[in-house]
Amino acid sequence: MVREPFNWQHLSGIGAVRCTGEGKKPRWFLSIRRGNIRAVHVARFLDSLRRHVRKKVILLMDRWAVHRSRIVARALERNRSWLTVEWLPSYAPEYNGTEYLWAYLDQTDLANTPAENLGRLRRQAMRGVGRLCRKVRTGEGVLGRCPLFGG
């Protein structure tokens, strides 16, 4: 009997997409870290997003408990001059554009990447997002599967 190596280490990600109201010109943002995402990581992501986005933004957030935490609420308040939040309905992942990003990465860049090599897995995901940002039509196609943008 061959024993598979078993470990509880994993990667988690926070993602966002900036696009027009029609889902055109998407630009994807992704932060990947080892372990679980906590409220402090979401708050840092929101603060860092400001460095990359200069216009006012409407952020669609799901109702994950971390997103509703006091720490994230303070970060949203801190960034309210440029950031407006609209909450997605409960149990509606099909409206979350980043879910389509994960599905795309799973089928392309992350396919056949060994999960036990977390560094390689992270690099592959980031490469895939970079490529998706350069290939605007492909990015529009990924986002176009979302019902908010015609999917």
List the helices and strands and how they pair.
Elements: E1 11-18, E2 27-34, H1 39-52, E3 57-61, H2 70-78, E4 83-87, H3 97-107, H4 118-134, H5 136-143
Parallel strand pairs: 3-4
Antiparallel strand pairs: 1-2
Helix pairs in contact: 1-2
Task: Please supply descriptive tags for the structure shown above.
two-stranded antiparallel ribbon; two-stranded parallel ribbon; Nucleotidyltransferase, domain 5; 151 residues; alpha+beta; globular
Characterization of the model:
It is a single chain. The chain is of the alpha+beta class and 151 residues long. The protein has one domain: Nucleotidyltransferase, domain 5, CATH 3.30.420. It is built from 5 helices and 4 strands. It has a two-stranded antiparallel ribbon. Helix 1 packs parallel to helix 2. The longest helix is centred in the last third of the chain and has 17 residues.
